[in-house]
Amino acid sequence: MTETEQKILMMISSSGESKAKAFEALNQVAEGQYDKARALLKEAQEIDLEAHKVQTQLITAEMSDSEDKPEMSLLMVHAQDHYMTSQLARDLIEKLIDVFEKKEGK
């Protein structure tokens, strides 16, 4: 496995972990645990930052004039999909928490 493939797999893994934390936060909302939910979303965001760093490295390398720049691959497209959906899940769940808190008058 190449170094680039390892980075891409780390991006997929981080994105999956972030999305799992976001849905765990939503489960906490269902139990009325808003502080726990917000803490889990913060964890999800921090995990997303790791995936974002890898994404930035790969995009920067692809844009370089270097001869060893990474090629676009199906694996990278897959990683990008995971990263984007984890961000969407986190953002949507954050808004849902706001809605439920407002509804309960918190």
UniProtKB/TrEMBL annotation:
Swiss-Prot/TrEMBL keywords: Magnesium, Metal-binding, Phosphotransferase system, Sugar transport, Transferase, Transport
Entry binding sites for Mg(2+): D81
GO molecular function: metal ion binding; transferase activity
Keyword Transferase carried by entry: yes
Residues bearing the modification Phosphohistidine: H78
Active-site residues from the entry: H78
Family matches, as SUPFAM superfamilies: Enzyme IIa from lactose specific PTS, IIa-lac
Pfam families named in the record: PTS_IIA (PF02255)
Signal sequence annotation: none
GO biological process: phosphoenolpyruvate-dependent sugar phosphotransferase system
Keyword Chaperone: no
Note accompanying the cofactor annotation: Binds 1 Mg(2+) ion per trimer.
Top-level taxon of origin: Bacteria
Cofactor: Mg(2+)
InterPro entries: PTS_IIA_lac/cel (IPR003188), PTS_IIA_lac/cel_sf (IPR036542)
Record protein name field: PTS lactose/cellobiose transporter subunit IIA
Organism: Floccifex porci
Taxon lineage: Bacteria, Bacillati, Bacillota, Erysipelotrichia, Erysipelotrichales
